[in-house]
Structures are given as C-alpha cells and as structure tokens.
C-alpha cells in the first residue's frame, strides 16, 4: 500500500503556485479531512452515552421495562463483532469506501432506531447501528496512517482518541437536554446531520486509499466470530442482568457453544492465508503489548464510569447533575492527557509516555478503594483548586489513561505493516471493546455477589450501606489492579515514531481519486 501520493492532480495553474502555498493548501485539506473523521468518531462515541442517559424514558414510553438493557448490550455485541471485519475490509479494499459504508450503516440504524415502535425493533436497529459504529474508529486510524507522515499522525491520533473523553462530557448533557425539550427519538435522529456532514467531507476530499495487496474477506470465519462473541455476551448479560446462575443449564449451554464456536473459529483462521484477524501480528512485541494494554484499560474505561456513577447516585444519594459533574473529573483530564501525548510522542519513545501514564492511573485509583458513605464529592481550595474528595484521585486517573490510550494507538499505527494497519488497529480496538464488555459484565456480577454475601445477616440500614460501600471498594481495587497489569505490559512497548526526513515535503492522500499501484 502506498503511504502517500505526490501532489494530487489539479488544474494547470497549480504548477505556477509557490511551493509554500501548495504546502499550506495541503495542510488545510488535511485539517478539513481530519475534522470530518473526528465528527464521525465523536458521533459514534457519544451515541452509547446519550442513549444510556435516556434509557428510563425509552422504557416508560414503550411500556417495556424488562429487557431494556439489551438496547445497550445489542449495540455492544454488534460493534465488537464489526471491529475486525471492517479492519480487514479496509486492508483489502478502499479505506475511504469502507469508512463510508460504516457511516451509512450507522446512519441507517440511527434512523430506524428512532422510528421503532416497540422494544424488539429498537434492539434490532440498535444492533444495526452498532455494527456500523464498530467499524468507524479502526478504519479512521488506518486512513490517518496512509494520509499523514509519522510526525503528524501522533497529533491526529491524539485528537481522535480524545473524542472518547469529549463524548463522556457531552453525551449525558445532550441526552438529558433532548428528552427535556423533545422526544427520546431525537437521540437517534441527531446522528443524521452529523453523520451526513462527516460522510460528505470524506467522500469529497479523500481519495480511495485503496490497497494494492488485494485479498478477500473470509465469510466462514466472520460467521464463527459473530457466533462465539454473541453467545459469550448473551451468557454474561443474562447472568448480570437477568439473574441466571452460572449452573443454569441455559448458561452452561451458551458457554459450551462459545467454546465450540471459538475453537472452530481459531482452526479456520489458522488454516487460511487471509485470516479475518491476522493473529500472527501478535508476534510483533509492540502490537502484543498494545493489545494487552487495550484489554486492561478497556475494562477500566467501561467499568470506572459505570461504578462511579452508581456509587455517587446510590451510596451517596446525589443527583444526576452531580454524577455528570463527577464524570467530568475523569473525562476532561483524559482529553488533556491524550492531547499531551500527541504533543510529545514525536520526541520520546512510546513507553516513556505510556508507562508513567499507567503507573499514575493505577496508583491514584487505589484511593478509590477507601471511599466511605461520608466521603465528599469534592473539596476545593482557593475556590477552584481540587484538593480532596472523590474528585481528587479521578484527575490523575483520567490524565494517565489519556496518555496511555493515545500512546498505545500511535505505537500500533506506526509499527504495523502498512498493508495490515487496519487489521492491527482493529485487533487492538477489538481487545479494548471485548475487554470492556466482558470486564464490565464480570465486575457487575462480582459486585452483586459480594454485596449479597456482605449484607447477609445485616439488621440495620447502616450495616447494609456499609456492605454496599465495601462491595464497590473491592470493584475499584480490581480496576486499579487492571491498570497496573496494563502498566506491566507497557514495558514491552518498545520503539518510537519514525519522523520523516526534513528534506521531504509531507503530502496528504486526500484529494486524489485513485492510487497508482504500490
């Protein structure tokens, strides 16, 4: 695959323009394209948070309280399945077209979800939406890889990674505002203008970004992947939300099906020349390290916000507005951390950014293991400086996660073979998504089990509350351990960004509508 084209063909007058002006025009084109990609990723990242905010409203309007959690889990399962599929497709065909296909599927699913007349329809259409959304991020990173020189990729990836933190800030605000002024259906309809805007920019300004290596998508492996991920997630959701026991014959059957389908999937993948997920690239130390980091931080990223919200709302009895404000103490530092990583990764090795970030997050997360029912949300000195409460440790936790997520993504993007960058980024994103889904489900099951055991025999409300606090503290301890395991894995994240030669003129593969063969 070509990493960059020479200047895109233009009208003859371009040849008479000063080279500095041509360079500035290319930079402007790159910024415009990056804005389009950013809006697409932000839209997908915000969607889950916006929908979670309005779930009670949806359940009441559709008169179906039971099963409403499948609106979330259906999206999560389908997006997890989509990640390696879209990553593979982007490596064997046009990255731009695959990206646009994901956007179109997401937009169509959004429209249909808004038109749903019952819960079953909503779950199905949310799954369609999730399938499209799951392919947006890995393909976007692959596009950035072939469009920008290495020293510019770091800032671009940092910006795209920061979209997760921005989504955490803006998602709940947008969701609560929409249901306060109109129907919950606009939670889905709002995606249409953002999606069309992003798609128009990418379609008009980006060339095909077509791989010269060719290949095919293995449909049997795709079906087996969808099978084992789905059966596993259905089993975990039923244990966590529906109360099925681990010894329940239905759970045992689902787990047995998961093992059988996974074994068949691995046999298929290891026997073909063009696997859906190139597992052999885990032999590259950087990609293996980044995959492990993504697995553990995926657990933390999904579970921290969930259990923090439950702690503040249930244990401390604060309002939804206080929960939102508390989340900001994680989200805003995460955005700053990702931006900081983008500013310094051109100068230092990957692990100089990632290792300290994870150590900072892991150690400060330990402060969440000693919370009590009397812990204040925040304590400020001089009216603006946080110096205590739950908010204080959340700031370094978020900042460290921002550093590590951006650093690991940049490492994979730069170290993967160009023809497999989509699959490599998709693999890491797959680990992050699957780790988050499995981790959140298992921690939910663990917290409920521990609370049941600790509160057994409790005779006063205070004793019950103390049992609940301890169960949450143990979950926060497991999250801190997860970060520290990622910290250990980060020591294998060797290498650094390979900066282009100063004499080379960076060019962007944006306006060209075709690529010459590699």
Outline the structure in words.
The protein is mainly alpha-helical and 518 residues long. The chain folds into three domains: 17-217, Growth Hormone, Chain: A (Up-down Bundle), CATH 1.20.1250; 218-275; 277-506, Growth Hormone, Chain: A. The chain has 16 helices and two strands. It has helices spanning 19-62, 70-92, 95-114, 119-134, 136-147, 150-181, 186-189, 191-205, 219-241, 249-271, 285-315, 320-344, 350-365, 391-415, 421-455, 461-489; strands spanning 379-381, 385-388. It has a two-stranded antiparallel ribbon. A hairpin with a 3-residue loop joins strand 1 (379-381) and strand 2 (385-388). Helix 2 packs antiparallel against helix 9 (219-241), helix 9 (219-241) runs antiparallel to helix 10 (249-271) and helix 11 runs parallel beside helix 15. The radius of gyration is 23 Å and the shape is globular.
């Amino acid at each position: 695959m070509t990493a960059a084209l020479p200047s895109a063909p233009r009208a003859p007058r371009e040849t008479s323009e000063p080279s500095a002006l041509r360079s500035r025009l290319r930079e402007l084109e790159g910024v415009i394209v990056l804005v389009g990609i950013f809006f697409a990723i932000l839209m997908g990242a915000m969607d889950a948070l916006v929908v979670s905010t309005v779930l009670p409203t949806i359940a009441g309007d559709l008169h179906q309280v039971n099963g409403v959690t499948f609106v979330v889990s259906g999206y999560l399962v389908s997006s997890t399945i989509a990640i390696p599929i879209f990553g593979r497709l982007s490596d064997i065909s046009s990255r731009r077209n695959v990206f646009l296909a994901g956007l179109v599927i997401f937009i169509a699913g959004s429209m249909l979800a808004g038109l749903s007349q019952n819960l079953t329809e909503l779950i199905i259409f949310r799954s369609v939406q999730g399938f499209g959304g799951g392919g947006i991020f890995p393909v976007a990173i692959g596009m950035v890889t072939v469009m920008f020189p290495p020293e510019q990729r770091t800032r671009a990836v940092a910006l795209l990674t920061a979209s997760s933190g921005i989504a955490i800030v803006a998602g709940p605000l947008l969701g609560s505002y929409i249901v306060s002024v109109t129907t919950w259906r606009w939670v889905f309809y709002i995606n249409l203008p953002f999606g069309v805007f992003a798609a128009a920019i990418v379609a008009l300004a980006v060339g095909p970004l077509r791989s010269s290596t060719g290949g095919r998508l293995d449909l049997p492996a795709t079906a087996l992947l969808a099978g084992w991920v789905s059966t596993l997630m259905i089993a975990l959701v039923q244990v966590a939300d529906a109360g099925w026991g681990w010894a329940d014959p239905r759970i045992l059957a689902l787990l047995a099906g998961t093992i059988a389908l996974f074994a068949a999937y691995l046999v298929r993948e290891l026997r073909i020349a063009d696997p859906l997920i190139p597992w052999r690239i885990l032999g590259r130390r950087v990609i293996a390290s980044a995959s492990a980091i993504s697995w553990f931080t995926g657990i933390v990223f999904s579970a921290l916000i969930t259990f923090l919200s439950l702690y503040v709302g249930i244990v401390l009895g604060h309002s939804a507005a206080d929960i939102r404000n508390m989340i900001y103490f994680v989200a805003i530092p995460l955005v700053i951390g990702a931006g900081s990583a983008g500013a310094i990764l051109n100068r230092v090795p990957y692990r100089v950014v990632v290792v300290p970030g994870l150590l900072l997050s892991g150690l400060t997360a330990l402060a969440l293991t000693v919370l009590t029912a009397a812990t204040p949300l925040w304590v400020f000195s001089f009216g603006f400086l946080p110096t205590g409460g739950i908010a204080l440790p959340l700031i370094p936790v978020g900042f460290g996660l921002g550093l590590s997520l951006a650093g690991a993504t940049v490492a994979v993007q730069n170290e993967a073979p160009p023809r497999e960058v989509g699959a490599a980024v998709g693999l890491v994103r797959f680990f992050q998504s699957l780790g988050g889904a499995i981790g959140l489900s298992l921690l939910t099951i663990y917290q409920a089990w521990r609370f049941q055991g600790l509160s057994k025999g409790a005779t006063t409300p205070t004793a019950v509350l103390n049992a609940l606090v301890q169960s949450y503290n143990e979950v926060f301890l497991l999250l801190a351990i997860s970060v520290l395991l990622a910290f250990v894995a980060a020591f294998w994240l060797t290498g650094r960004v390979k900066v282009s030669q100063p004499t080379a003129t960076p060019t962007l593969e944006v306006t060209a509508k075709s690529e010459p063969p590699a």
